[in-house]
Amino acid sequence: MFAHYKYQKLQVGDFAIDNRAGISRTLHRISAIRNRKGTIIGLTCRVGRAISGSADLLRDLVQDGASLLLIGPPGVGKTTIIRDIARMLANDYKKRVMIVDTSNEIGGDGDIPHAGIGCARRMQVPDSDMQHKVLIEAVENHMPQVIVIDEIGTKLEAMAACTIAQRGIQLVATAHGVTIENLIMNPSLEILIGGIQSVTLGDEEANRRGVQKTVLERKGPSTFSCGVEIVSKTELRVHRCLEATVDAVLAGRFPRIEIRKMNSQGLEESSQTFTDISSDKEDLVVTGDLSETSDENSIGNHFPSDLSSKMADDSTEDRDLLHMYVYGEASVIQGLKKLKMDAAVQLTDNISEAGVLFAVLSKLRKNSGIQAAAKSHKIPVYVAKTSSSMQITKALEALKDDYPYGLKNPGSENDMNILEKVDALEEARIAIEQVVIPKEEPVELLPRPTQIISLQTELIEKYQLQSEKIGKGSDVRLRILPFKLVKDEDKSSGEDANANDFENFEPYGANGSPHGVDRLPLLPD
Fold this sequence. Notes:
This protein is an alpha/beta fold. It has helices spanning 2-10, 59-63, 78-92, 131-142, 155-165, 180-184, 203-209, 242-250, 307-317, 332-338, 361-366, 368-376, 389-402, 413-439, 450-462, 489-499; strands at residues 20-22, 29-34, 40-46, 68-72, 97-101, 121-124, 146-149, 170-176, 196-200, 214-218, 226-232, 235-239, 257-262, 269-274, 302-303, 322-327, 345-347, 356-360, 381-384, 443-444, 465-470, 477-484.
C-alpha cells in the first residue's frame, strides 16, 4: 500500500510559475495555495474529463470553417467543448490543428498529450506571459490550418489572435464572460469583436437614426466570425454573425441569436431563433421630447408613466402575459428565466404593442427617441442602473412586484394570489381588533408583496390607525401603530399638486406601489 501511494505521488508534475501542476497523460489539474514564505499549504484538485460529442451542437459551424469564440463563466465547460472541437477538426475533417495549451488543460500534463484531442498537435506555453509569442510561432513554424487557444485574457493575446485571423487561419478560442456585451465592455478584449470607437454624426444622420450626435460603433472587422455563449452543458446561444451582433448591441437593438439545446438522451437538438428588436423610428410614435434622466432620478429601479392604467388594460385581455420591449440589453432573457417569469413575459419588437419597456440607464439616456416613444404610449419604463446580472435581476424583481397579478409562470397561481390577499387582510384585521385597539400595542405583520401591503395599508386606514413599513428587500412588512390617523387636507392637496408637477419619468419611493384598490374582498366574521 505504501509503495502504491509513493508511485502515485511521483506522477504529479512540478508546480510551474502559475502554481499549477498536473498528472502525466491525464486532464486533471492541481493548483497550489502558498503562504507568504512560498510554502505550499493547500491544494485545489480539478478533475478533467474528455467528453466525446460535447461539441456536436456546433458541428455545422466547425465544418463550414467558421472561426469560433466561446464565452462562458468558469466551470461551465468551455475547455471540454474546445477540446472536442480540436478532435473533430483533426480526426473527422482531416485538418492540421495546432493547440496552444496555456496551462495544459486541453491536452493534459506531460510530453504526450491526452487521447481526447485526437490527431491534433499541441504546443505548451512555458509562461502565460509568453502565450502571444507562442501563437505567432505556431503560425510561422508549423503551417496549421486551425489554431485552438484556451483562455484569451490579455490585450497582447487578443492582438496576436487578430494577426492570425488576418492570415486566413481558422481560430477556435475561449474567453471568460457571460454575454457578448461583456467583451464589448472589456478594453483588453474588445479587439476580438472589431474594437469600439466613438463617432460623431452629422445633424441629418443623427435625426435619421433618432440618436445623439456621438455614438459608439465597431471600429473594424471582427477577429471571429461566430460567437457562442455557453449557458450550460446542454444549452448554447449562437451568434452566427458576430459583427451583426456587436452592431445591434451598440445601436441599442436586440441581436439575432439562435438557442441550441440537447435533450436528456443526447440524440436530438432543438433550435429557436429570436428576431431583432428594432428601434427604428417607424416603430415609434413620437409626440414630444424627453429631457435626459438626471442622476437624481436614477436612484430607483424603474420610472413609472401611468403604470396602473396601462397594465390594467393589458390584464383585461391576458392576465398572465405581458409584452415587453427590451432596449439594448440581451441578457434580460437570463434574468426572466432566473425569476421564472419567461412564460409570463413575451418580448415584442413593436413598442406600440408593449406593456412595459426595459432598458439600461446609460443607454436610455442616449436615445431621446425611445424616451419620447415611451411617454407618448404611456409605457412604464423599468431601468437597470448597469448591465450587470444583479442590477437586471433587481429591476425585474421590481417589475414582478408591481404587476397587479404577478409575473409568475401561468398555472393555478391566480387562485393562490386571491387566497394570499384574503389571508393578509384577515391577519391585519385580527391584529387591529384583538391587539392594537384593545391593548394599544403595536403589531408587526408578516412580510408580504408590495401590492398586498398596499391592501393592508388601506384596511388599516379604514380603522383610522397609522402604520409604517419596516425591513428591506423581500422582508418588507407593515407595523401597525396604536395612534389615530391624522389627515391634513391642506398637506395632502399640496402633495397632490407637487405630484402632478413631475417631469418625464419620476421614480417611486423605495417601497411605493402604483396600484389603487377599488374595493376590499369580503372577509368572514
